[in-house]
RNA sequence: GCGGGAGUCGCCCAGCAUGGUCAACGGCGUAAGACUGAGGCUCUUAUCCCUUAGGGGUUCGUGGGUUCAAAUCCCACCUCCCGCACCA
């Protein structure tokens, strides 16, 4: 019952302002009038702004909305600033996730089908069509587009495209041939995490549990066994080869003898398989038990020395080759295993071995001196480790490795690498053993990673992989130059861009699977998604002229198949003669020139919006590729970066179940409130914390604005009350309007959106309240023309942020045009009255002071005497201000010295030095702006605002019999029984209350 | 390891770029009052400590420094978070 009652209250207020209805109403009107479509207008400044296009593999959630909303605010703002704004949108079909989704549908993956049915509410017949990846992309494409419209984004949809359209592919082919001609595409080998079943590289989002595959690089040290065999041992610390005392083998497992690159290696079967992926040529010859090798000798080829092979249970067949070298002085595992073995008489008797190993110390650090027992022994004692199965051994190992890695120095008497740091020694030994073929490199996954398909992943060396060489020094220089010329908002993130440009090197640019464009010179490969999305902004000015279906061909449309490199060279770079291009492409010269002109008009990009997660990849590539391909006058002008969206303080994720689909949120609360919440809850680079409590708060704020303006209009529209004589508060509110235009515009220019909204939603309100307080104390109506200006400005300032709401109010205010197309408010200098700030400030201060006094004394005021400062104090105040502002003198002593000789003020200064001190403090505690303002003031008669405030004092004290008297301190007839007047200071009148 | 960022009044969070308007915005919580049949709604007020005249004291991770003046600038330290590649 109660719940119903609540709902009916909600509904009642909803009736007043039906967000769904006004959204639909204005979307329709905007679309009918095509107001967001932009064409070349030679006499109008253009503004071309783009956002990273979405990847349509799911519906958008509120997190996606932030970047787009911000860009839309930008577009709407610039439009009102009289720019011919182009704000287009495309859809990024390129890549593998959509393809693998379709495969999961094909294999009836329950989890995915559940998601589609339960969460996205997609009908079954549509889901079954998802066996075709393009159907998935198209479905979410339309879904996202609908959401963007419902959010009120002012997009020119005629330019929409997908990245697998024929025309786009032609364009990407051109881009890649262009890069290749410049020598920026190279071919090479590279180790990657790999799914053997999918035959494809894997990274974090391809794995079960989203685990990032971590690659480690082992050095395989090749020991010889019986002349013809090789026993390779994997190590991360090749420098410790000098301290090897023995090898460890697991006696309980089967090993294989395999031909590896024409040598006979003894390794585990697992290792043989891993080596195959690393492009070793491997074939298994026979099997051998670990125990067969125990007690035998292996030759360390580096020191030409034989070491025994001992058994150890800690040797993991899945790790490395399944045989490891033992360095008991520096490896706690090795030390402990030896110790265990010594005690294990049964085993040594079984294999007939005698353990008489002496650890060989190689490295010393501050924590582990060379004159003590070996570091491994010390740390084992310290951790009180029992045996080789003790879990603390792992921690001890990490601790020692890290200490030696950072602070270790090789002992002076060690061959070749004596006195070198561990890092230097490692590098040297590594190179040497590889050069002499005593060792080689092996990659392995540090962690057990499974592909989404369930298969265990391995490391694979991809050969003939195509890379974009971002490491090219000349190219880097150009990228830096582009960055330096560009505006980065917020500026704090510029350094991050520098760092990224600095460390980018070769990056793979093609894959074997997924949607996208084929590499033009090698059809095996498909251009990767982060490579085909870097200069596509250039495609927007032409996309509406290109069609992919020949049957739709008309005079002013180009069939995609007719596009060739000459076309793009001409349109984008001005290369080639239009006559020649026309002949080779079936496109008329006239039409070519039209398109070229349109490109020249709109390009370069004036602003690129994106989330900050794209800084280290997309945005950096965007910079690089523009630098490589386009002339400097076509380089982008600005990047705007924003933080992500949290849901009630937590990252949005499927597992937390806190992903809110954008369209649901719109349906529930209306687009305007959602937009404002995303934009107002954090400054641009911060993560914004989204919650429905906040949305409700914002929405009720909008209701309040709606009601206030509604109430105002119902009175104002009847009598069009134009003030004949402006009173103090009228002048003030007029000044405040100018102030807000100035401040809010400046905030938007710098993308301090939170600040701008704070002005519009909250600060304007508190001014409005003050104005109302002043008017009602005087028993006057505030429904006048000034208040009308106030609301008009407020709604205009708000309109880029809450477009539907503002259009509705704009109409309610009697306008028949679109606020979206109206002019941004301009500051009117003739309406700026600095003095009005001091007037109202004085009134607010006097009320505050009276409140403080009555609070402490608990007097109920019947009479209030206010004493304004004497003439001489006013003169002195101005002199002090001048000293502080013009000569930067703030020291009390220096001031006193100067003023005791100043005939105008010396008597007062000598008599009341404490008041001088107070006046200096008064000035110093004002902001620079206030000080300058007061310095500019030719005169300020405090009596005028004080007199004007009497009505307010009466209403504030709640005593309508209150008597207020205002005296000058200089007035000899004043009533001043407690001698308060002498405390008066400029802008700080003295008060006496009875 | 490399790079980036953060620590603010019970909690969340603004301010720091351009030092003074800062005992420090706003929200939550808490307390009192108004409204109401009653409220979990809404509104008003208070919310670091002391104070019978508008005042004083101590605060912005820790410790120093610069300055007439520091949450804000500089140095050192402590703690926490994020990104690091073949993926959108």
> What's the total count of β strands?
32
Instruction: State the helicity in percent bands.
Output: 40-55%
Distance between the termini: 56 Å
CATH architecture of the largest domain: Alpha-Beta Complex
CATH superfamily of the largest domain: Valyl/Leucyl/Isoleucyl-tRNA synthetase, editing domain
Shape: globular
Q: Order of strands side by side in the largest beta sheet?
A: 10-8-9-6-5-16
Number of structural domains:
4
Q: Which structural class do the helices and strands define? A: alpha/beta
> For the record, what CATH class of the largest domain applies?
Alpha Beta
| Largest pleated sheet | 6 strands, mixed
The CATH topology label of the largest domain is Isoleucyl-tRNA Synthetase, domain 2
How many helices does DSSP assign? 37
Report low-confidence residues grouped into runs of 5 or more.
Answer: 1-15
Radius of gyration: 39 Å
Q: Quote the beta fraction.
A: 15-25%
- Average predicted local confidence, pLDDT: 87
Question: Can you offer a commentary on this structure?
Answer:
With 994 residues, the protein is an alpha/beta fold. It folds into four domains: 169-184 and 472-639, HUPs (Rossmann fold), CATH 3.40.50.620; 216-441, Valyl/Leucyl/Isoleucyl-tRNA synthetase, editing domain (Isoleucyl-tRNA Synthetase, domain 2, Alpha-Beta Complex); 697-835, Orthogonal Bundle (Isoleucyl-tRNA Synthetase, Domain 1), CATH 1.10.730.10; 838-993, no CATH class. The chain has 37 helices and 32 strands. Strands 10-8-9-6-5-16 form a six-stranded mixed β-sheet. A five-stranded parallel β-sheet has the order 2-1-25-26-18, with helices on both faces. It has a four-stranded antiparallel β-sheet with strand order 4-3-17-19. A hairpin with a 3-residue loop joins strand 5 (215-225) and strand 6 (229-235). The longest helix has 28 residues, at 692-719. The two termini are 56 Å apart. Residues 1-15 have low confidence and may be disordered.
């Amino acid at each position: 019952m109660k719940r119903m009652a609540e709902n009916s209250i909600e509904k009642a207020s909803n009736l007043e302002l039906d967000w769904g209805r006004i959204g639909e109403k204005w979307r329709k009107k905007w679309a009918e009038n095509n107001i967001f479509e932009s064409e070349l207008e030679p006499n109008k400044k253009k503004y071309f702004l783009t956002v990273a296009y979405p990847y349509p593999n799911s519906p958008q959630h509120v997190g996606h909305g932030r970047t787009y909303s911000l860009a839309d605010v930008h577009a709407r703002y610039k439009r009102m600033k009289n720019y011919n704004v182009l704000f287009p949108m495309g859809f990024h079909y390129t890549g593998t996730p959509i393809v693998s989704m379709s495969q999961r549908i094909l294999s009836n993956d329950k989890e995915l089908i559940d998601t589609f049915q339960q969460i996205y509410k997609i009908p079954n017949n549509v889901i079954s069509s998802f066996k075709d990846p393009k159907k998935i992309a198209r479905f979410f494409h339309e879904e996202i587009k609908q959401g963007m419209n419902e959010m009120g984004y002012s997009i020119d949809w005629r330019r929409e495209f997908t990245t697998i359209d024929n025309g786009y592919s032609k364009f990407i082919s051109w881009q890649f041939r262009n890069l290749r001609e410049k020598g920026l595409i190279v071919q090479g080998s590279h180790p990657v995490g790999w799914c053997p079943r999918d035959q494809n590289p894997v990274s974090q989002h391809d794995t079960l549990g989203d685990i990032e595959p971590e690659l480690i690089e082992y050095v395989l040290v090749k020991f010889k066994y019986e002349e013809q065999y090789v026993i390779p041992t994997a190590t991360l610390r090749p420098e410790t080869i000098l301290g090897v005392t023995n090898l460890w083998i697991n006696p309980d497992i089967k090993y294989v003898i395999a031909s590896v690159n024409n040598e006979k290696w003894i390794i585990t079967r697992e290792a043989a398989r891993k080596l195959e992926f690393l492009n070793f040529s491997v074939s298994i010859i026979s099997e051998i038990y670990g125990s067969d090798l125990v007690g035998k000798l292996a030759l360390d080829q580096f020191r030409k020395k034989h070491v025994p092979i001992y058994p150890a249970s800690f040797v993991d067949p899945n790790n490395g080759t399944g045989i490891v070298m033992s360095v008991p002085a520096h490896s706690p595992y090795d030390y402990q295993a030896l110790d265990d073995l010594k005690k294990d008489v049964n085993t040594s008797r079984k294999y007939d071995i005698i353990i008489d190993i002496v650890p060989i110390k190689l490295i010393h650090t501050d924590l582990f001196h060379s004159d003590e027992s070996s570091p491994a022994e010390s740390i084992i004692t310290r951790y009180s480790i029992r045996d080789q199965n003790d879990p603390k051994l792992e921690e001890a190992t990490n601790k020692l490795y890290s200490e030696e890695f950072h602070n270790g120095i090789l002992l002076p008497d060690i061959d070749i690498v004596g006195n070198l740091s561990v890092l230097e020694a490692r590098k040297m030994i590594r190179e040497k053993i590889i050069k002499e073929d005593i060792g080689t490199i092996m990659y392995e996954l540090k962690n057990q990673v499974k592909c989404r398909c369930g298969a265990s992943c391995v490391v694979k060396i991809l050969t003939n992989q195509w890379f974009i060489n971002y490491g090219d020094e000349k190219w880097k220089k150009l990228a830096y130059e582009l960055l330096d010329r560009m505006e980065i908002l917020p500026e704090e993130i510029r350094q991050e861009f520098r760092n990224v440009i600095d460390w980018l090197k070769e990056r793979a640019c093609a894959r074997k699977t997924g949607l996208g464009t084929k590499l033009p010179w090698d059809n095996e490969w498909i251009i990767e998604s982060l490579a085909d999305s870097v200069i596509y902004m250039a495609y927007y000015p032409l996309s509406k002229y290109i069609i992919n279906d020949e049957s739709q061909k008309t005079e002013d449309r180009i069939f995609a198949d007719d596009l060739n490199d000459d076309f793009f060279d001409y349109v984008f770079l001005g290369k080639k003669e239009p006559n020649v291009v026309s002949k080779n492409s079936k496109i008329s010269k006239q039409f070519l020139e039209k398109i070229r002109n349109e490109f020249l008009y709109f390009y370069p990009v004036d602003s690129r919006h994106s989330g900050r997660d794209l800084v280290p990849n997309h945005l950096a590539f965007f910079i690089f590729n523009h630098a490589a391909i386009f002339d400097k006058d076509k380089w982008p002008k600005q990047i705007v970066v924003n933080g992500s969206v949290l849901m009630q303080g937590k990252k949005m994720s499927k597992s937390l179940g806190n992903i809110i689909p954008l369209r649901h949120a719109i349906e529930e609360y209306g687009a305007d409130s959602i937009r404002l919440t995303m934009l107002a809850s954090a400054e641009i680079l911060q993560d914004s914390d989204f919650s429905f409590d906040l949305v409700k708060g914002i929405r009720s704020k909008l209701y309040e604005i709606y009601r206030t303006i509604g109430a105002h209009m119902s009175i104002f529209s009847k009598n069009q009350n134009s003030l004949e004589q402006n009173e103090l508060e009228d002048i003030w509110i007029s000044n405040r309007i100018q102030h807000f235009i100035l401040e809010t515009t400046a905030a938007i220019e710098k993308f301090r959106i939170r600040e701008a909204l704070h002005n519009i939603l909250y600060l304007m309100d508190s001014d409005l309240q003050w104005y109302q307080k002043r008017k009602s104390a005087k028993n006057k109506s505030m429904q006048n023309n000034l208040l009308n200006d106030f609301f008009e400005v407020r709604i205009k300032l708000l309109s880029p942020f809450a477009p539907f709401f503002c259009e509705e109010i704009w109409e309610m205010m009697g306008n028949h045009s679109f606020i979206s197309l109206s002019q941004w408010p301009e500051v009117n200098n003739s309406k700026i009255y600095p003095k009005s700030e001091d007037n109202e400030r004085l009134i607010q201060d006097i009320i505050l002071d009276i409140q403080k006094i009555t609070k402490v004394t608990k007097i109920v005021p019947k009479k209030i005497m206010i004493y304004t400062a004497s003439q001489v104090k006013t003169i002195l105040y101005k002199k002090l201000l001048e000293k502080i502002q013009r000569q930067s003198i703030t020291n009390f002593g220096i001031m006193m010295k100067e003023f005791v000789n100043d005939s105008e003020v010396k008597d007062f200064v000598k008599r009341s030095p404490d008041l001088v001190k107070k006046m200096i403090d008064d000035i110093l505690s004002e902001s620079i702006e206030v000080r300058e303002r007061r310095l500019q003031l030719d005169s300020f008669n405090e009596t005028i605002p004080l007199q004007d405030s009497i009505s307010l004092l009466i209403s504030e004290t709640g005593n309508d019999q209150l008597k207020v008297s205002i005296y000058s301190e200089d007035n000899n007839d004043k009533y001043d029984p407690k001698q308060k007047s002498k405390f008066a200071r400029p802008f700080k009148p003295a008060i006496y209350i009875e």
